[in-house]
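User: I'm putting together notes for a lab meeting next week and I want to include a structural view of one of the chains we've been expressing. I don't have a solved structure, so I'd like a prediction I can at least talk through. The sequence is below, exactly as it appears in our construct file.
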Amino acid sequence: MHYWLHQLQQKRWEFSTARGLGTRDSWNLPTMPQIHSGLVASNTGTCVTVYLRETVCVTVCCDVIMCSQNVPKLSLRGTRNSMSQLRQGWGGEGRRSVFYTAEEWEMVDPPGKDSQEPTQIQELPKKPPPDSHRYSTGSVFTFDFGKSASRPRRPFLRDMMKASRSAESSQTDCNGSKASEMQHRLQSLQEELAQLREELASQKELVRLLQQTLKSAQCERPAVAVAGGPGGPQDQAALLQEKGTQIKGLCSHMEKLALEKESLQQELKSLKNKVGEMNEQLGMLMETIQAKDEVIIRLSQQGCDTAGGACGSPDCGSPTSTSKELQELDNLKDGLQAYKTQNKFLNKEILELTVLRRNAEGREKALEAKYTALEAKLCQVESKYLILLQEVKSPMCSSSEENPAQEVISRLLEDALQVESSDQQEHPIFKPHPVSEYDVYGFKTVPDDDEEEMLVARVRALNLKKLSLGEQEMSVSVKWDNYLAGMMNREMTRSPELKALVRSGVPHEHRSKVWRCCVGFHVKKLREVLPQNYFESQLRAALEKSNPASKQIELDLLRTLPNNKHYASPTAEGIQKLRNVLLAYSWRNPDIGYCQGLNRLAAIALLYLDQEDAFWCLVTIVEVFMPRDYYTKTLLGSQVDQRVFKDLLSEKLPRLHAHFEAYKVDFSLITFNWFLVVFVDSVVSDILFKIWDAFLYEGPKIIFRFALALFKYKEDEFLKLQDSMAIFKYLRYFTRTILDARKLMNMAFVDMNPFPLRQIQNRRTFHLEKVRLELTELEAIRQTFLRERETTTDGRTLISDDEEDN
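Assistant: Thanks for the context. Below is the predicted structure for the 806-residue chain, given as structure tokens.
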């Protein structure tokens, strides 16, 4: 295609040059005013209208080129076949276009016979035989561009200009009539020009329609091939080959995105370097200005001193001294004016550098936003790539022969499931966004045992990363930066603004500070009456004296968070800190001592807080947030909250509650652990820490909100299940399938409203009395059973087997 366009442009240039050597004024049009086009129009392929006839063909050709760039794998032969009929008529004439059929190439508008130097036009090769177009794609519509016999031939603009010039030479004696006739001819020429422009627009529209037709025909061919379905091994092999082609296309797309990312990073680095250089230049200019100002001040002082000394001298009134003083004054004025001019120039340079620096900062922010969007898009492409690999992994045909495409897919799966290594870190182009073995919180992301689970885990990790790189997450991070910048020299206090920010989630880099402040809100009065080294004293006492809870604590240390690298081994850095926090709290609160569940609460707190702050976080949860007897041996408070939650579920989600009641599903077996450890090991880590953000600020009401939101998120899936075993099985893992934290938080804080804390407290009081009565009855039944068993054991006579035989 580019070869023929090059040939066409060369012939047109030769033709225009040859015609320019002749009587150019006899056929050249009047110069048209230049049409100014905007940024959008600059890419539409418009041409300067010098020769109107040539403009039609060149513009149509440019539009065809632009359309063909949007059509994948478009053949030039197919384009010639589709556009071959355009050559037959434009304005009712048998003129030729840039497209050709079996006829030879000809110029659009050959020169007249009266030209002084005729131009020889070399004929181009003819169209290939029809067999070469067997596989070209034609149009699905029928267009007829034939000649119109009833339409008269329109005169050329050049002929009309010639006629006007001949009329000038023949009617030199009639100046008045010639002026009116020329005005009439000019008006007719303008009308002709308007008509030709309209026809040019219609021709462009026809070309665009033809290109769309070609594109639709290209798209229908693979659809027709797929619609046939797998009718045999050959069709299955073709389908597999097509999927392999899709995989290659995705791989190439990933490589392109990686290269684009690298180029953006390099451009960002260069822009940062330029900004640094500009700042250095700005500093140098400021120093120069300061030095100039000092020189001006010094010279001014010297001038004042000189003027004062001259007035006190005896030669003060002489004409010679006066002339010298005037000359020095003029010199000082000239120097002052020069310094002012230089100062203005430097100030102008500083302003320009400031504008450049601001523009560079804007470009840098735009590049960072683009980089983030590309990173999120690449994560999405990688997840689709892994899903495609999982789909095509199963054999497509039942033949026992090994399929080479299957080996390629297996190899790609092995590469996709490899853990990130040091080589990949040094060369990020080979794997631009690898899923590491652990996330930012230290939790293991990919299991080691099952290959299918590894693939699903990687897809989940990529989806989480894509969600974390969204525009809303970036907006939340910017809001937090602005808020903390405003609170830099002030203490953080409870406010509606802080509450709204905490509900939107705290960024990873600010979570430690925010959690420390939230814990301080709740235990501030308690810590004021205690010594500053209270935690160290409690820990020292627990280590020096006998502690009944220490044995159970040691047993549960390694079972706390085995999937987190900070608590995975006895030598991990979090084990000793966790031991100290649990021992210190067991010594502070001997009524509870240690309960299974406290270890997980302390472990999550230690991920962002030091030992002392984690200790006070545990005090906040157990003694401030939760009711009494929540972590005792009877777990009385936990049982009460389950009944409160059941009432709230029937109120907020009545359909789901009725569905559970119809199939007699006791969901409290699952939700009991949610309330006891605040969703630890129940949801993905990103959602877990967003729940803890709001929990540490607002209190236990957040647990009820998110528990209801989790059920609302999957309400439709629960209602589709019609078996109690299937419902209970889905209850055990459905929370791990929820990845969109923003959607879940919107349900918790918007869809669950109104949600007053007083309502929860009243329901707790009501159910607490009922649970206590039930526990009292159970204890009475247990005591009665024990007494009966003791009585039966004392009254029974033991008889040996030998005595029984006798």
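A couple of points you could mention at the meeting. The domain at 627-790 is CATH 1.10.472.80 (Cyclin A; domain 1). The chain has a mean pLDDT of 75.

User: Perfect, that's what I needed.
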